[in-house]
Amino acid sequence: MTNARRLRHFVQKPSETPRYRLGFDRSRSKLVREKFRTTRKSKTVDIFSPPGDVVDVLHRGLRLWLLRCGCSSVVPSWRAVYAGSAVLLLLLAALAVLRLPKESAPAPTISYARAISSVVTLTRTDRVFRTRAVMTLFLFASFGVLWSGLVLPLSGEPWHFSTAEIGLFGIAGLFGALGAARAGRWADHGPGQRVTAISLLLLIVSWAFTGQATNSLALLAVGVIVLDFAVQAAHVSSQNQIVRADPASSSRIIGSYMVYYSVGSALGAITTTMPYTTAGWAAVSLLGAGYATAALLVRGIDRIIPSRESKEQRQRR
Question: I want to staple 234 with a disulfide (CB 3.0 to 4.6 A). Which of 49, 132, 156, 199 is the partner?
Fold first, then answer.
């Protein structure tokens, strides 16, 4: 029998310890090691996220986290940020244990090792999963370019904003995520293809606005809202599509899907600084739009290349 609140508590609690240690580590090597452990543990929680309109809560939390990071400059030390995060996670874990309802489920029919290797199996055998996963990789690479690189133009000429002021742009992102709350319902009641196509086109267009970060804060805010709406809508739609054929295995499927999410986010963050150093924010904007275009091309290629799948399977994509 599976108790969801205890399972979430078990998964979430290990991430609190390394986060607490981050507040006291003095060694750079220890800081990097504990940060890696924190990220690895926290990503595990994603496998319990249900598809559909509930998933947008995760992105609202991410927007609030970006806001918190920006405003963290007003606290005495960066160590206080991690110590405060540890306290908040402890409170959240306690709330989960006390408030989440009990639920039962049959014993798992596959081994843990097989569940972990599902990302390879699904990528090789499931065309719907493979297409949506690769799209998501480029989708969140574009997302990562913006949110990891936005500090660069805003802290330089002509704005010279502080980190607290830059963090306030997380509010604009939150509005975009809130606007996409219905994306899951759209996908539930109609073909996810249309939602995905419109979202990817909006993502490409959003970079025309965010590319004006050095000229207009209003246009930048519009771009951030549109980008977050597009990413959220495509993300929720993709999760809806990949679990539709096998809802009972949604945790395993979404857990595998989130691997591509993480790789894409990291790719966007890693590839941002070099274009900015060589050609400024315009080059970064082209990079973000390029990743978005790559996601759209993956969708287009999947629609053009014939497959042996049934008509029902093709409609899922």
Answer: 199
Q: Tell me the C-alpha distance between 113 and 121, whole Å.
A: 12
Q: CA-CA distance, 249 to 261, in Å (whole number)?
A: 19
* pLDDT band, very low/low/confident/very high, at 220 (cuts 50, 70, 90): very high
pLDDT recorded at residue 191:
62
* Closest among 298, 138, 292, 135 to 210, alpha carbons compared: 292
Kindly write down the DSSP assignment for every residue of 244-263, as one continuous string. Answer: TT-GGGHHHHHHHHHHHHHH
3-state DSSP percent of the chain in helix, strand and coil, to 5: 80, 0, 20
* Better-predicted residue by pLDDT, 73 or 173: 173
- Of 135, 151, 269, nearest to 199 by C-alpha is 135
- Is residue 36 very low, low, confident or very high in pLDDT (cuts 50, 70, 90)? very low
Distance CA 229, CA 183 (A): 9
Instruction: Report yes or no: 208 and 154 within 8 Å, Cβ to Cβ.
Output: no
- Alpha helices by DSSP H, listed for the chain, are 4-12, 16-22, 28-44, 56-71, 78-99, 112-116, 118-125, 127-149, 151-155, 163-167, 169-179, 183-188, 192-210, 217-243, 250-270, 273-279, 281-304, 311-316
